[in-house]
Amino acid sequence: MSSKNLLVELFVEELPPKALKKLGEVFSQTLAQSLKNAGLAASTAAVTAYASPRRLAAHVTEVAAVAADKPVAQKLMPVAVGLDAAGNATPALLKKLAALGADASVVAKLRRENDGKADVLFYDSLAKGATLADGLQKALEAALAALPIPKVMTYQLQDGWSSVNFVRPAHGLVALHGADVVPLAILGLTSGRATHGHRFEASVDPVVFANADEYATKLASEGAVIASFAERRAEIARQLAAAAAQAGGKPIDDDALLDEVTALVERPNVLIGQFEEEFLAVPQECLILTMKANQKYFPLLDAAGKLTNKFLLVSNISPADPSAVIGGNERVVRPRLADAKFFFDQDRKKTLESRVLGLAKVVYHNKLGTQGERVQRVCAIAKAIGLQLGGETVAVLAEQAALLAKADLLTDMVGEFPELQGTMGRYYALHDGLATDIADAIEDHYKPRFAGDTLPRGQVGTIVALADKLETLVGMFGIGQIPTGDRDPFALRRHALGAIRMLSEGDLNLPLNALLAAVAGVFASVDGFKPAEAALADFIYDRLAGSLREQGYTAQEVDAVVSQRPQRLGDIPKRLAAVRAFSALPEAAALAAANKRVGNILKKVEDSVDPWVDNALLKEAAEIALHAALVDVVPQADAAFVTGDYTESLQALAALRAPVDAFFDGVMVNADDLALRANRLGLLAKLHLAMNQVADISKLST
Fold first, then answer.
1. Are 584 and 598 within 8 A, CB to CB?
2. Measured distance CA(403)–CA(499) in Å, rounded
3. DSSP calls for 255-307
């Protein structure tokens, strides 16, 4: 059956720019998959997505006008029900066949097959393949229904009575199968072969397509529109690089901004604008943010990464003389920059310390009090951690940084640009003459803000960031605000991962359980707070295990280490390396299996078993040999463990394989003599303790 290429375009009013890329992908993929499911498009059909501010389109290769007929096997009923004793059709069978569009003439052709219970009648037929008109209508409806639209518009059609729902009003529909129009109707539109190009720069209106394959080229040549999102994005990136080189700088790297601008223009034209150098006295983060967020400009940086007074704008028109476009954008950005300068100048008239009292008027959580109360708790936690890690000097710096860390929330700049919290605090702290360690800590205490973000740059910053995250975690768990499923309104998973990274990558000597208990202590005066350290510890170790698996460790390696709940998280990478090295030993599998067996034996004992052995009660040669091996191996393993050489500690266990195997082959643990039994259980407890210091190696057993 011959096939042709298909083009479908829905022409609409301006689509939401931040959603356009995803809308284009979902529209094309859903449309093509529906056609494949209907047998109208080949499984090898290539799909090309198009998405511009005013259109969603898809080009699909190898699409048939009619799908091939499909054999259908219809299960009818048991033979005993469908045929009488003479083999004639019963009324029940005839009624069933009639419902399927068949009559008594097919009875002789019915297939009999046993379904495991009884012989059953089957009616084999050929289902007519769907026509492209029917299949594409369903595919288009499915594509529109699948679009990730958070809110739809309701708008009237031209008849003045009917209304439809869609993300934006739709004004045109193109559907071409080769050179033929496929008759479709949706959103009050009927399909044709014409669309509209650029609002101002199209050389022809409407743009009429002779066939499906000339869509992109003709829309570009006559309609002045680059229909492909990817091609338009690449063209903007190319023009940005060229314009930046001409201006002697480099554009800021921001993929999200590039995607958004791509969704705002149909034929991009990058131009260079500039503003007065006096604005560069304002922190560059403020200027960059206002240009990006409010104007969608690409600020230009010099070779050192410092902001210049030039920016790149992406225009949707290309006049012969662009001066009016450039001048208009320069006039628009100037008030924005002036606002930033005003906020910065006004904010510096008050010190950060003078703003701290104002935090008592800002509600943090109705059960946990104000931001002021929260700051006091973070100060107490930071001071305690500082004393433990660096002594009095570090504790004083950490406490002061924690006191001031949230003060910039009350500044005009952060009120206008919440994204700058912390960043502005650092600038204002330096302006107030505070130490660099304190200023850096104010900015860094939010870090890491996301996966892959940098950690705080200094010890004071790490302490305040850790205190801030632990206060949030312990506080929220203490009032029952525990994440469930996808719900995590207070970003506790992110806070937990941030704390894990600081404790682990910083190798901080802060045992987790003691740390959580100390933090819970600062909530003693909070009504309704109930310590939940155990649940929080479980939550943290779960996040840790997931993070380690993402880093490439196997589930068995992670389980072996994390199940032991190491209190110092900085030890975990070394323990994992030790487990990986141990797993490569020829003795590893047997020892892991033996450890699992020992654990199961000890679990069945009602009372706890002390790891203690009475030499006088060692009777069998195998148990004497195992005890002797433990006496020799345990001191070696313990010494390596104490020095943090976990690899050596685990590998020392390899010498136990032969005596352990011999013990299980030749010794009855549950002896009738209760004293012998207790002594052998004590020997196994001693073995279990020795084998599980670094990790639970039974987890390596398959």
1. no
2. 20
3. HHHHHHHHTT-SS-EEEEEE--GGGGGS-HHHHHHHIIIII--EEEE-TTS-E
Q: How many helices (H) and strands (E) does the chain have?
A: 25, 20
Q: Return the C-alpha torsion angle 383, 386, 391, 396, nearest 10.
A: -50
Q: How far apart are CA 475 and CA 472, in angstroms?
A: 5
What's the CA gap between 262 and 564, in Å, rounded? 51
Terminal CA-to-CA distance of the chain, rounded, Å?
A: 53
Q: What is the pLDDT of residues 162-218, one digit of tens each?
A: 888 899 999 999 999 999 999 999 999 999 999 999 999 999 999 999 999 999 999
pLDDT tens readout for residues 19-28: 999 999 999 9
Phi, psi of 12 (to 5 degrees): -135, 175
> In this structure, are residues 118 and 62 in contact, taking their beta carbons and an 8 Å threshold?
no
Confidence band, pLDDT 50/70/90 cuts, at residue 630: very high
Return d(Cα 54, Cα 280) in angstroms, integer.
37
- Of 463, 462, 495, 461, the closest CA to residue 476 belongs to 495
| 195: enclosing H helix or E strand | strand 194-195
| Residue 71, helix vs strand vs coil | strand
Nearest-CA neighbor of 671 among 600, 632, 617?
Answer: 617
Sequential DSSP letters for 339-371: HHHHHHHHHTTS-HHHHGGGGGGSEEETTTEEH
Question: Measuring CA to CA, how many Å separate 11 from each of 15, 140, 168, 229?
Answer: 10, 13, 10, 15
HEC assignment per residue over 516-584? HHHHHHCCCCCCCCCCCHHHHHHHHHHHHHHHHHHCCCCHHHHHHHHCCCCCCHHHHHHHHHHHHHHHC
For residue 74, which of 119, 128, 124 has the smallest C-alpha distance?
A: 124
List of E strands, 14-152: 47-52, 55-64, 70-78, 111-114, 119-127
Given a contact cutoff of 8 angstroms between Cβ atoms, the answer to whether 178 and 59 are in contact is no
**Tokens 């009090």 found at:** 369
Name 369's bridge partners.
365
**pLDDT at 506 > cutoff 60:** yes
Other C-beta atoms within 10 Å of 219: how many? Answer: 27
Give 657's contacts (C-beta < 8 A, 6+ positions apart): 587, 590, 591, 594
Mean per-residue pLDDT over the chain, rounded:
92
CB neighbours (10 Å) of residue 305?
Answer: 9
Residue type, 163: S
Q: Which long-range contacts (CB under 8 A, 24 or more apart) does 143-146 make?
A: 143/26, 143/27, 143/28, 143/30, 143/31, 143/34, 143/58, 144/10, 144/27, 144/186, 144/187, 146/26, 146/27, 146/30
pLDDT exceeds 80 at position 676: yes
The predicted structure's pLDDT at residue 274: 95
Token pair 């039994």 in the structure block, residue = 677
Question: Which tokens go with 210?
Answer: 């002779």
User: Is residue 237's pLDDT more than 90?
Assistant: yes
> Cβ distance 3 to 62 under 8 Å?
yes
* CB proximity list for 81: less than 8 A, separation 6 or greater: 90, 92, 93
> How far is it, in rounded angstroms, from Cα 666 to Cα 673?
17
Instruction: Look at residue 1 and tell me whether its pLDDT is greater than 60.
Output: no
What is the DSSP pairing of strand 363-365 with strand 111-114?
unpaired
**pLDDT value at residue 702:** 65
